[in-house]
Each structure stands twice: as C-alpha cells, then as structure tokens.
C-alpha cells in the first residue's frame, strides 16, 4: 500500500506588470511567534497578516526566500520551511545566527512578533518521493542547520498512519549539544523507534559522520534506499562521490547545500572583468559589471527574470545560454537534463566575455541607476560598432588589395579575364556591406528597447569603398 503525498504548488503564471511568474511574487507575512530552537537559533512562525494562516501548502523540504531592503541593495536569504506542509498552520522557518551574517543577525536580534516580512512562495526540489511505501527506506544525513528541511519531512511522515510510514534512518551531526536544533522535538518523534532510528554526532566530542558507518546502519537496503543529504558543500561533495562507489545510484541521492549569495559568487578572475549579455529575445546588448551575476545585471537594466533563492539551489532563475561561456553557472538547482540543454543559473553565473541568453523576458522597470546604465549601454553599443567597423574596414582593404593584385587560386591561374566578372566576384566585395546592414538593424534594437534614439549601425559600406 502506497501513500501519495501530493501538495499543490503555485502555478507559473506571469504577472502582466512585473513579468514574473506567480511563484516569484513576494507576499507579506506577519511574524506570529519567535521561539528558541537551539543556541543562537530561533524559529519564526509566519502567517498572512491578521489570519493566523499561511499563504498555502508546500512540499516538506521546500524553502522560502525572505527579502530585506537595505540602504543600497535588497538582501535575499532562503530558509527551509520546517513544518509538515499543511496550509492551516503558519509557516515556520528556523534561523541560526551566523558569524558576520548580516541578515541572520538582523533576524535573530530584531525580528519580533507582529513585524511583517516579505517572503517568496515555496520552492525547491529537495523533497520526499512522490510515493512512500511502508517498506521503503529513507536515509537522512544532516549537518548543523541542514536538519531544517529534513525535520519538515520527518514531521510530514509522522502525519501518516503508522503502518504506512517508511523506515527512516537519521544521521545528524552538530558542533556540540547546545547547537542541536530541535533536539527535544526530534527525541519526541518516535521514542519507541517504530519507524525512526537516529544517530547523533557531536563533533566537539570527536564524533564524525563516516561513509562506512552510514552504509553499515542501512545494511542490505543501502542500494534501494533514498538518500537525503543536507549541510555543507563538503558534506554534499563527499557523499555524492562516495555513495555511488558503493553501488548507490546517483538518482537515489538528493542533496541540498546551505549557501549565501556571496559564497556562491564566481571566484574566477576571468569573470571579474566586464562582460556583455546579448538578449536574443529582444536584441538588446547589456554590459555587465565585474563580478556581477547575470541576474543582477538584468535587474539593473530593468528586466525582472524569475528568481527565488539567489544562491544556486532552486533553479527558478535558469536561463538558456545560447553562445559564450559563463563562470559558476551550474549548481544543485539544475537537473542534468537542464544542464545538457544549455541552461545556466543566472543568480550565480557571471559572463566571460560576450554571451547570448534566451528567456530573460522583457524590460518592465526603469533603470535602477539610469545614468550609469545608459552609459554602460552606449559603451557596449559603441564598442560593438567599433569592432564591426574594424572588421569591415579590414575586409574592405583586403578586398581592394586583392582586386589590385589580381590574385587567383592556383587552379584558376590560367582563367580568362572574363572569369573575374563571374557572379562570385561582386558577391565577394558586397559581403561586408551586407553584413553591415544586418548588424545595423541589430544595433538599433537596443536603442528602441531602452528608449534611446535609434543610433543606426556603423556604415561599414564606407569602409569597403
Ligand atoms: S534563484 Fe534559485 S537557483 Fe537561482
């Protein structure tokens, strides 16, 4: 007998004004309660203002993103929902104060009941299988705050009748006992160990999560089990490489990493130079700032592509890279199929040189920094024109020299003079001009899109003549 957990998610309908899908819309939530969950860690209960109810259901394991407007920028941070997914309850998130963490410190120190916050709708693929069978084995491996989405899944499983619950093994590592999040709640989930067995590792006591030990606890079920890993990037890397070596299919390994936008930013120096984004849907050419992500550039120019976590985890911001190269464009938010199809995660990717992108949508907002962006746009267009002009001039000079010296391929050395007027000759000389016309129309598009006077393309015919 299988129990199907089906939870509706928001449809991807685009808002007529913002151009974003409903799942990217932010909603206003009120803080109902703030309760301690561990040392430096609190749990917030969030609901639609005045209702005590959440905006909707979610899949246990999904997360929301909170937006905090700052003086110069808006800070976005994602937090796993840690309830059991039911809509008649407030949403719950657990926040651990991080050293030097701007947002987590603010939440920990300043957020109180009654305050309102802006939150996205739930997103994420780190969720339970769509069907759960009683004999199925689920292995959860969590480190630190990585317990939060797993706690949500455990609570959802506990909702099922006992005879329908899968067999669950939980391995949870934390620094010391005071850092154990939900320690009381975890102990109360299944004191008789009828469906849940737990191993806790206190790293300051020398306890370590080891692959061999993990496998030994699962026994013969290891290859058929579904494995869920949530914690640091190193834990994810370690298990994603070690488990398949023991015969566990990659498709059975589900992982999520806790990362902040700054920690996922491209570190490669080649992405620290200005780049260019050509938007094939509109023909616009945007110049990016050094180290800026594709999403940040698009937003600066007034585009509003979808996003959620802004840290490479959810895949909401994926755009299709048609040409060129990006740094850091891939992560847990992309499936292997999406990656093979050319998608990149715009919230973490930075262009290397010039790239062509599809799917960014249309410009729906004013420039965030008008003068600067217009300068960037003009500079991008000017440089492009200059490059085209140089290419055309070079071709023109070459063509003229070719005509004066009357060179022919060796197999035409004895051809009659009439051959020089064959249809191919005018075509050779006219190619650059034709190219310039095409480029010219391409160049005018960004001007009209950005409300600039049409500047026309470089007169490359002049260079040819
Ligand atoms: S917004 Fe989540 S992966 Fe980019």
Task: Give a description of the structure.
The protein has 465 residues and is of the alpha/beta class. Helix content is 28%, strand content 24%. The protein has 4 domains: 24-120, Elongation Factor Tu (Ef-tu), domain 3 (Beta Barrel), CATH 2.40.30; 131-261, 3-Layer(aba) Sandwich (Rossmann fold), CATH 3.40.50.80; 265-358, Ubiquitin-like (UB roll); 387-464, no CATH class. The strands form 4 sheets. Strands 5-4-7-2-3-6 form a 6-stranded antiparallel beta sheet. β2 and β3 (41-47) form a beta hairpin. α8 packs antiparallel against α9. The termini are far apart. Residues 1-16, 370-378 and 397-465 have low confidence and may be disordered. Bound molecules: FE2/S2 (inorganic) cluster. FE2/S2 (inorganic) cluster is lined by residues 307-310, 312-317, 333, 345, 347.
Topology:
Blueprint: E1 3-4, E2 26-38, E3 41-47, E4 63-69, E5 74-80, E6 91-96, H1 102-110, E7 116-120, E8 131-132, E9 137-143, H2 147-159, E10 167-174, H3 183-189, E11 196-202, H4 211-218, E12 226-231, H5 233-245, E13 253-257, E14 276-279, E15 285-287, H6 294-300, E16 318-327, H7 336-340, E17 343-345, E18 350-358, H8 370-405, H9 424-449, H10 460-464
Parallel strand pairs: 9-10, 9-12, 10-11, 12-13, 14-18
Antiparallel strand pairs: 1-8, 2-3, 2-7, 3-6, 4-5, 4-7, 14-15, 16-17, 16-18
FE2/S2 (inorganic) cluster binds next to loops.
């Amino acid at each position: 007998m299988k129990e199907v957990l089906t939870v509706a998610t928001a449809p991807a309908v685009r808002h007529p004004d913002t151009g974003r899908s409903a799942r990217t819309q932010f909603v206003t939530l009120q803080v109902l309660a703030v309760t301690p969950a561990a040392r430096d860690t609190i749990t917030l209960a969030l609901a639609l203002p005045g209702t005590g109810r959440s905006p909707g259901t979610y899949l246990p394991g999904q997360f929301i993103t909170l937006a905090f407007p700052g003086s110069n920028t808006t800070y976005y941070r994602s937090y796993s929902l840690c309830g059991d997914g039911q809509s008649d309850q407030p949403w719950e998130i657990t926040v651990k104060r991080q050293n030097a963490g701007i947002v987590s410190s603010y939440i920990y120190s300043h957020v109180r009941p009654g305050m309102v916050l802006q939150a996205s709708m739930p997103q994420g693929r780190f969720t339970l299988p769509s069907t759960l069978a009683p004999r199925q084995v689920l292995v959860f491996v969590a480190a630190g705050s990585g317990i939060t989405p797993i706690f949500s899944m455990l609570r959802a499983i506990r909702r099922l009748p006992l005879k329908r619950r899968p067999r669950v093994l939980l391995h949870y590592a934390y620094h010391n006992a005071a850092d154990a999040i939900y320690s009381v709640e975890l102990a109360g989930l299944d004191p008789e160990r009828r469906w849940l067995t737990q191993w806790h590792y206190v790293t300051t006591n020398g306890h370590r999560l080891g692959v061999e030990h993990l496998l030994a606890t699962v026994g013969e079920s290891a290859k058929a089990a579904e494995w869920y890993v949530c914690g640091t990037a190193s834990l994810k890397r370690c298990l994603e490489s070690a488990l398949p070596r023991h015969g566990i299919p990659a498709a059975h390994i589900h992982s999520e990493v806790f990362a902040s936008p700054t920690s996922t930013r491209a570190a490669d120096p080649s992405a620290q130079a200005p780049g260019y984004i050509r938007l094939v849907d509109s023909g616009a050419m945007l110049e990016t700032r050094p180290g800026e992500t594709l999403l940040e550039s698009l937003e600066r120019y007034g585009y509003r592509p979808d996003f959620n976590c802004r840290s490479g985890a959810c895949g909401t911001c994926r755009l299709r890279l048609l040409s060129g190269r990006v740094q850091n464009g891939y992560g847990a938010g992309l499936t292997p199929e999406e990656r093979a199809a050319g998608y990149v995660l715009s919230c973490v990717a930075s262009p290397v040189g010039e790239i062509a992108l599809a799917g960014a949508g249309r410009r729906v907002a004013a420039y965030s920094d008008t003068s600067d962006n217009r300068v960037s746009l003009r500079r991008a267009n000017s440089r492009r024109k200059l490059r085209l002009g140089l290419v055309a001039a070079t071709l023109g000079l070459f063509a003229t020299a070719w005509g004066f010296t009357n060179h022919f391929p060796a197999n035409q050395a004895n051809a009659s003079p009439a051959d020089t007027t064959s249809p191919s000759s005018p075509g050779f000389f006219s190619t650059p001009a034709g190219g310039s016309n095409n480029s010219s129309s391409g160049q005018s598009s960004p001007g009209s899109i950005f409300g600039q006077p049409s500047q026309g393309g470089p007169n490359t015919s002049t260079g040819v003549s």
